[in-house]
């Protein structure tokens, strides 16, 4: 759920320990005039960093020391009120009723063609959005977060098929349809400009198990151009995706007691669907900051996501201290709903001195400011100096000023020898007691009271935890039955030899076994074949982030595979050993095994088994290698470059079908099993003698342009959404009984062309510099497909190309282009976009001396069966050679990354 703003949740968490137990404070209920509770209303203790949110039942609770306070109550669409209260002993009760907000309309000219006043408000807010982001130099905060997910319905078929597992889940993990699964987190969060985030989880509790779920995305802001992959209404490109309507203005007391004006703006997407919001945003007049918002969007699988933010002033900067996210919908027939709330309290807040002075921004479309700056006036100028001289700027000048400031800051960071390619530096620390906090501890920290159902869910989870505790005989310690299950798991039984199984002999050691019944295959060379594997992994070095994400710093592996071929009545297999430290790995393997002529495996063994047994199509073509291989891979220069090198010595043998006249399960008319010798248009025969091959293979890959990185607990990771093209160079040399040199260059690129729209391309060219002696395994092969089900990378895989017909031992050029559209043909209809359909067009081209300019042009529709099987796609493809039409084909595929 890549775009799901719900994911933005599991981030934040913190509410400092006010005391070991909160003995005094304020509690109550927030309702409307009809007496209905107002869920998730903001309650702020004026003049302090303390605040909270009411729960789903409208109840709230704040721990406060004895004294006099002014309490501010806020709720979207209702008038903000302030109530004085005095805390003495115990908890004081204060119930409030909020009245609906009365809006007044600004004086608007009504003549034809007059622009809605929302546009001038939004132009100013958009121009000043980056300014508001840069106002925060650093802060420390304490955050309390609570999420609740409830599975509302499961398909009857799944309920019957997994009846036993559902019973076990209810017994062991407190999971049940209709019962909320809760997660609460308390954390200490710190931010410092430009990109450093520190988070310490001090408490975590879950009603359905003992796990943590904090998120790295805890600084998401609607001042960003995108949030969760969805275009913000304050994005510089917002007018291309939204229309805005002015709904009125209201007044409420400001932080210094003076009234402030807030405008209500309706956000209307030009085409609603994935990647855009709809709803309401409230903008503060004159400062043009976000006061609050209530928006919703949908994900690519049809889940509706709601977002509510209420901002509060902190030293003049309006910050989203109270946030709520909701999600509802169904996926694969499972219907669920959930919410996530976040309450943030600042303990330290420092405003960036360069942005301390508030400035006016004029909409030049309504009237230019008294003075307009030129590029020459802005270039090289200090922002503080310019602001002192001029208080009002045009939207254009303000954007230029902010860009100049960011440019200067980047240069200053370079001079300080800071790495400007790092766009985010995260640190996550989990307190050792985080999952062991008592109910008393939680009651002292919880700023959003539990609802009745949530309290029942925790009560059942706690009782299950007591039942699971087992007194260890002869000692005063206890252990859970999960520990017992782990110990029992390491015990050996004969049944474990048939299926996959994993033993954990020690804390750092894992023994993984692949049973023969887990991998049964069939092809016309081996007949039926079964395979078993055994791999021992040792991970001696672990850091804190590795423990949390299960990623080792280093790893030793040793193991092997044993395969029995029933048709050939013999065993084959290989052994391997490897060592990895961070991104550097060396691996040694050797033995006797069968491989496809195309080393990229254009058809998987499982799919070939399916096509051979059911459709009388033996598509995989195999040969045998007795080999020894050494492979080394590394990512030097801080992962800016990746390198893979291998040296292999092998005796290679041609194989035939294990017998003649193999009988299929189903005898299809006009079909019969073919020879294991592929057909090729470039040579008369692809047969080859038994020969020895020494092959050196070198590959280097790098991004063209600056690669940006994210640091997580000291680990440097290249950003996956880096839009820079990637260049890959490959050199291969054949020796021993071979004599050839092959070189190839590939450039690939993927970049956004709009909301949920991308253009992907891959271009490759290569040649055999020397082709004195080589055989079919040494040819350049291409990612073809001969079955109606499409596997592999959707960008670089041909849909109708035979696997080996145009494999070449000479030279080649191939090009692939795939354009993905959020709105194209059938998706012009809003309903089609809302159910998750996506269209794409693609072109695949191949030149070899024999291919006659082979070309495929196709159309694809993703989300073939919306809501049920949303990851399937259907394609129609036309086939051409030398610009002459050859035929039409259809393919069923998947958007999942199988085999890619």
From TrEMBL:
<keyword id="KW-0175">Coiled coil</keyword>
<protein>
    <submittedName>
        <fullName>Carboxypeptidase-like regulatory domain-containing protein</fullName>
    </submittedName>
</protein>
<keyword id="KW-0645">Protease</keyword>
<feature type="coiled-coil region">
    <location>
        <begin position="391"/>
        <end position="418"/>
    </location>
</feature>
<feature type="signal peptide">
    <location>
        <begin position="1"/>
        <end position="19"/>
    </location>
</feature>
<dbReference type="Pfam" id="PF18939">
    <property type="entry name" value="DUF5686"/>
</dbReference>
<keyword id="KW-0121">Carboxypeptidase</keyword>
<keyword id="KW-0732">Signal</keyword>
<dbReference type="InterPro" id="IPR008969">
    <property type="entry name" value="CarboxyPept-like_regulatory"/>
</dbReference>
<dbReference type="InterPro" id="IPR043741">
    <property type="entry name" value="DUF5686"/>
</dbReference>
<keyword id="KW-0378">Hydrolase</keyword>
<dbReference type="Pfam" id="PF13715">
    <property type="entry name" value="CarbopepD_reg_2"/>
</dbReference>
<dbReference type="GO" id="GO:0004180">
    <property type="term" value="F:carboxypeptidase activity"/>
</dbReference>
């Amino acid at each position: 759920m890549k775009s799901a703003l719900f994911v933005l949740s599991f981030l934040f968490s913190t509410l400092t320990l006010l005391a070991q137990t909160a003995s005094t404070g304020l509690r109550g209920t927030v309702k409307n005039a009809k007496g209905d509770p107002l869920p998730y209303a903001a309650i702020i203790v004026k003049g302090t960093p303390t605040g909270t949110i009411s729960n789903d039942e409208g109840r709230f609770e704040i721990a406060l020391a004895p004294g006099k306070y002014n309490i501010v109550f806020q709720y979207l669409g209702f008038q903000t009120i302030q109530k004085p209260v005095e805390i003495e002993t115990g908890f004081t009760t204060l119930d409030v009723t909020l009245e609906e907000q009365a809006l007044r309309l600004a004086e608007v000219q009504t003549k034809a063609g007059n622009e809605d006043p929302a546009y001038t408000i939004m132009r100013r807010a958009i121009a000043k959005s980056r300014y508001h982001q840069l106002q925060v130099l650093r802060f420390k905060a304490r955050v309390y977060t609570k999420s609740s997910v409830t599975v509302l319905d499961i398909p009857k078929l799944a309920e019957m098929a997994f009846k036993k597992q559902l019973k076990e889940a209810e017994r062991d993990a407190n999971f049940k349809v209709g019962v909320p699964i809760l997660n609460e987190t308390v954390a200490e969060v710190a931010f410092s400009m430009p990109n450093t985030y520190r988070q310490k989880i001090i408490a975590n509790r879950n009603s359905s198990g003992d796990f943590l779920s904090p998120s790295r995305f805890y600084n998401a802001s609607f001042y960003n151009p995108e949030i969760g992959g969805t275009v913000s209404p304050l994005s510089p490109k917002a007018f291309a995706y939204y229309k805005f309507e002015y709904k009125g203005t209201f007044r409420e007391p400001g932080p210094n007691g003076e009234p402030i004006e807030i405008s209500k703006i309706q956000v209307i997407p030009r085409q609603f669907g994935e990647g855009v919001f709809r709803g309401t945003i409230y903008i503060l007049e004159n400062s043009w900051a976000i006061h609050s918002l209530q928006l919703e969007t949908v994900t690519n699988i049809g889940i509706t996501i709601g977002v509510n933010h209420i901002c509060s002033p902190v030293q003049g900067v309006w910050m989203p201290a109270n946030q709520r996210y909701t999600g509802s919908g169904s996926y694969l027939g499972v219907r669920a709903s959930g919410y996530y709330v976040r309450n943030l309290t600042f303990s330290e807040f420092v405003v960036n001195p360069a942005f301390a002075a508030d400035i006016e921004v004029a909409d030049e479309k309504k009237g230019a400011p008294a003075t307009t700056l030129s590029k020459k006036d802005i270039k090289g100028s200090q922002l503080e100096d310019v602001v002192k001289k001029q208080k009002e700027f045009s939207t254009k000048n303000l954007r230029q000023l902010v860009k100049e400031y960011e440019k200067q800051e980047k240069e200053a960071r370079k001079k300080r020898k800071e790495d400007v390619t790092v766009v985010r530096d995260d640190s996550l620390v989990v307190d050792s007691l985080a999952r062991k906090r008592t109910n008393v501890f939680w009651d002292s920290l919880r700023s959003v009271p539990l609802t009745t159902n949530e309290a029942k869910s925790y009560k059942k989870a706690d009782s299950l935890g007591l039942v699971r505790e087992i007194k260890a005989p002869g000692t005063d310690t206890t252990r859970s039955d999960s520990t017992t299950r782990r110990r029992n798991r390491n015990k050996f039984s004969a049944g474990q030899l048939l299926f996959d199984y994993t033993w954990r002999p020690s804390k750092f050691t894992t023994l993984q076994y692949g049973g023969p019944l887990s991998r049964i295959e069939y092809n016309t060379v081996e007949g039926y074949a079964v395979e078993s594997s055994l791999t021992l992994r040792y991970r001696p070095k672990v850091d804190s982030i590795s423990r949390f994400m299960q990623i080792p710093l280093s790893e030793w592996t040793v193991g092997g595979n044993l395969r029995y071929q029933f048709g050939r009545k013999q065993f084959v297999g290989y052994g391997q050993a490897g060592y990895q430290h961070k991104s550097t790995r060396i691996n040694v393997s050797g033995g006797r095994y069968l491989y496809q002529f195309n080393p990229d495996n254009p058809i998987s063994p499982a799919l070939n088994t399916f096509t051979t047994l059911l459709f009388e199509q033996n598509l995989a073509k195999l040969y045998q290698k007795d080999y020894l291989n050494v492979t080394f891979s590394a990512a030097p220069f801080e992962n800016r470059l990746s390198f893979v090198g291998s040296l292999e010595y092998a005796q290679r043998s041609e194989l035939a079908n294990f017998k003649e006249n193999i009988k299929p399960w189903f005898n299809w008319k006009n079909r019969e099993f073919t020879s294991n010798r592929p057909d090729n248009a470039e040579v008369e025969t692809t047969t080859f003698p038994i020969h020895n091959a020494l092959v050196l293979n070198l590959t280097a890959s790098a991004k063209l342009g600056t690669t940006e990185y994210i640091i997580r607990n000291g680990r440097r990771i290249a950003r996956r959404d880096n839009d820079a093209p990637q260049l890959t160079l490959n050199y291969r040399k054949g020796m021993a009984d071979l004599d050839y040199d092959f070189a190839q260059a590939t450039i690939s690129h993927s970049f956004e062309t709009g909301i949920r729209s991308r253009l992907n391309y891959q271009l490759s060219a290569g040649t055999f510099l020397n082709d004195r002696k080589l055989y079919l395994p040494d040819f350049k092969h291409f990612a073809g497909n001969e079955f109606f089900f499409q596997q592999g990378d959707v960008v670089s895989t041909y849909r109708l190309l035979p696997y080996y017909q145009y494999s070449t031992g000479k030279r080649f050029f191939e090009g692939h282009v795939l354009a993905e559209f959020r709105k194209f043909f059938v998706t012009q209809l809003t309903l089609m976009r809302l159910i998750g359909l996506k269209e794409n067009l693609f072109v695949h081209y191949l030149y070899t001396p024999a291919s006659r300019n082979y070309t495929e042009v196709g159309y694809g529709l993703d989300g073939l069966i919306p809501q049920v099987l949303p990851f399937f796609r259907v394609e129609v493809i036309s086939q051409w050679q030398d610009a002459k039409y050859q035929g039409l084909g259809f393919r069923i595929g998947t958007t999942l990354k199988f085999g890619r």
